[in-house]
Specification:
Helix 8 packs across helix 13 and helix 15 crosses helix 16. The chain folds into three domains: about 120 residues, Rossmann fold; about 160 residues, Alpha Horseshoe (Serine Threonine Protein Phosphatase 5, Tetratricopeptide repeat); about 170 residues, DNA Cyclobutane Dipyrimidine Photolyase, subunit A, domain 3. By secondary structure, the chain is mainly α. The longest helix has 25 residues. Bound molecules: flavin-adenine dinucleotide, ligand DLZ and iron/sulfur cluster (SF4). The site of flavin-adenine dinucleotide (FAD) has 28 residues, from helix 11, helix 13, helix 16 and helix 18.
Length: about 525
């Protein structure tokens, strides 16, 4: 008798060409999608994130049925729902009399560990497929790290450009003569005269409205508002979001990638990570389209190269780091930081306007763009010495695109330097000067960004110097910090002392600021 497989599809595997689906085409199997309490609560996800995932899962089930698959969909409010993916796989095997499981590797270590126990627990053969939506498998990345002292994203990215013939000129060199155009991509927004593209927003259909009601009832108490939910929840709508980005934002994406503006969370960003991470969009397709936009004259090279680097470079590299170093990676705390996460991260109640604006965006949209995540909330947590695990938990909860494989290395490694420099050659620590240069936040702030001490001084300023002083034993020999340490040494001792004292006060009670 041929095997009849159960094909479980997790909430971030909503891709019709997924390996387990492609390879089981024609088998007399059953696809299982299950909304389960364990996944919805292992972090206190933003309600918009849960609603996006459930609504996209329900639409994907319809898509698969339309494509001829036999689909079993378990809703969260099904009275027999066991609340875990393992429990639902067990029930589905029995319900349909199936005798094997074919599953694509999950995005998180925690779930991979559970699946590792399925053969014994469920008594059937379990075939785990490599997730072919990524360019580089965990094994290939591990191989790349062998014999390397430093894991430079740039080296990795260039190798992938060559291997997949992306943005190359006729003789195999980088298009336009340079591998990286980042130096052209650090412009603040001009004060006037620049029209921002309208953000693509989608009106919820009946399926999504049902999910919104369910999520409001079950998870409405989590951090975050459901009111403005306007995410795409079908593949077709996600493709419209993609097309909108290419038509309206890509040409200026590079120039203003690092800029921030009050009340404007979207700017020229793609805002495609939630769809990419769910599987509604595919990275290879975005890369091809971006390159075609440049070759067709629709977007400049600095924008297109920057965009492709995020997807082919950073996204793959981050995932590689996650699988290479988990589970130990999640425990790292190289700077020995132990402060609790300030309450302001949940309440948004703070006089520091940059933090307040970023947290309001996050609360309203389950979204903030990269520089807000890195240089505002991330930078403050780093400078204030917050325990990395607490910061990582916050990021995993609050963003619509957050899955541990991508959230953890970005937060623990890139923003907090808690991996001791595996990901970055120096901490992304910055004073208020950086935020002032790249945004208009300081204009509306009760603090004065030009001051470093005194009651009205921008707290980031003293915190920055305080961070350098207290971390000197660990960071003092870092060549990339030589200049700020020289500046610190040139300061009058009284000034150093005043900065240190104000830094101590902010670290002791960040919520008072
Ligand atoms: P664009 O800038 O347009 O980039 C295009 C795509 O490239 C993105 O959609 C995304 O899929 C990918 N990408 C870009 N930067 C990164 C990166 N650093 N790592 C991995 N992929 C990247 N991204 C997530 O997808 N999920 C997270 O949970 C997440 N947590 C983060 C936490 C912190 C502290 C920081 C600093 C960054 C985090 N990022 C995360 C990376 C990045 O901020 C988002 O991917 C980006 O803001 C998505 O916006 P976009 O689609 O407009 O990206
Ligand atoms: C994040 C999430 C949530 C909130 N709910 C579900 C769910 O009910 N069912 C499901 O299959 N997946 C869900 N997910 C996504 C999973 O957490 C994700 O697949 C794993 O963490 C691996 O990345
Ligand atoms: Fe943020 Fe300081 Fe500027 Fe206020 S003055 S917005 S706290 S950087």
């Amino acid at each position: 008798m041929p095997m009849r497989p159960l094909i479980p599809i997790f909430g971030d595997q909503l891709t019709p060409t997924l390996a387990s689906l492609a390879d089981c085409r024609g088998a007399d199997g059953v696809v299982l999608l299950a909304e389960v309490d364990a996944e919805a609560t292992y972090a206190r996800h933003h309600p918009q994130k849960i609603a996006l995932i459930f609504a996209a899962m329900r639409h994907f089930a319809e898509e698969l049925r339309g494509d001829g698959w036999r689909v079993d969909y378990v809703t969260l409010d099904d009275p027999d729902n066991t609340g875990t993916l393992t429990g639902e796989a067990e029930r589905a095997l029995a319900r349909h009399g199936l005798d094997a499981i074919h599953v694509t590797e999950p995005g998180e270590w925690r779930l991979a560990r559970d699946i590792g126990g399925w053969t014994e627990r469920l008594g059937v053969a379990v075939h785990v497929y490599t997730d072919r939506r990524f360019f580089v498998s965990a094994g290939q990345f591990a191989e790349w790290t062998r014999h390397r002292r430093r894991l430079r994203m740039e080296d990795f990215y260039r190798q992938l450009r060559r291997r997949h013939t992306v943005l190359l000129d006729a003789d195999g060199g980088p298009a336009g003569g340079s591998w990286n155009y980042d130096r052209e991509n650090r412009k603040p927004l001009p004060r006037t005269g620049l029209a921002l593209p309208p953000p693509p927003r989608f009106t919820p259909d009946a399926i999504t409205r049902d999910v919104l009601a369910l999520v409001q009832a079950r998870f409405g108490h989590h951090f975050g508002s459901l009111d403005g939910f306007a995410w795409a929840t079908t593949r077709r709508a996600a493709e419209r979001a993609r097309d909108h980005f290419f038509a309206h934002a890509l040409p200026s994406f590079g120039d203003y990638q690092d800029a921030m503006r009050s009340g404007e969370p979207w700017l020229f960003h793609a805002v495609l990570s939630p769809y990419l991470n769910l599987g509604l969009l595919e990275p290879a397709d975005l890369i091809e389209r971006a390159e075609a936009a440049w070759r067709g004259g629709a977007a400049p090279l600095n924008a297109v190269e920057g965009f492709i680097r995020q997807i082919l470079g950073w996204r793959e590299y981050i995932r590689g780091v996650y699988w290479r170093y988990m589970p130990e990676y999640a425990e790292r705390n190289a700077l020995d930081h132990h402060q609790p996460l300030p309450s302001l991260y949940w309440s948004g109640e703070t006089g520091m306007n940059c933090l307040r604006e970023t947290i309001i965006d996050t609360h309203e949209h389950a979204w903030a763009h990269h520089i807000q995540r890195l240089m505002v909330t991330g930078n403050f947590a780093l400078l204030a010495g917050v325990e990395p695990a607490a910061v990582c938990d916050w990021y995993l909860c609050v963003y619509a695109d957050a899955y541990e494989w991508v959230e953890l290395p970005n937060t623990l490694g890139m923003a907090l330097y808690a991996d001791g420099g595996l990901l970055g050659s120096k901490p992304y620590a910055a004073s208020g000067k950086y935020i002032h240069r790249m945004s208009d936040y300081c204009k509306g702030c009760r603090y004065n960004v030009q001051q470093a001490t005194g009651p009205d001084a921008c707290p980031f300023n003293a915190l920055y110097w305080h961070f350098l002083m207290r971390q000197r034993p660990r960071l003092g020999t870092n060549q990339r910090l030589a200049m700020p340490y020289r500046n610190l040494d040139r300061m009058h001792p009284d000034r150093r002392q005043a900065l240190f004292e104000r830094g101590e006060a902010v670290v002791a009670d960040p919520d008072a600021y």
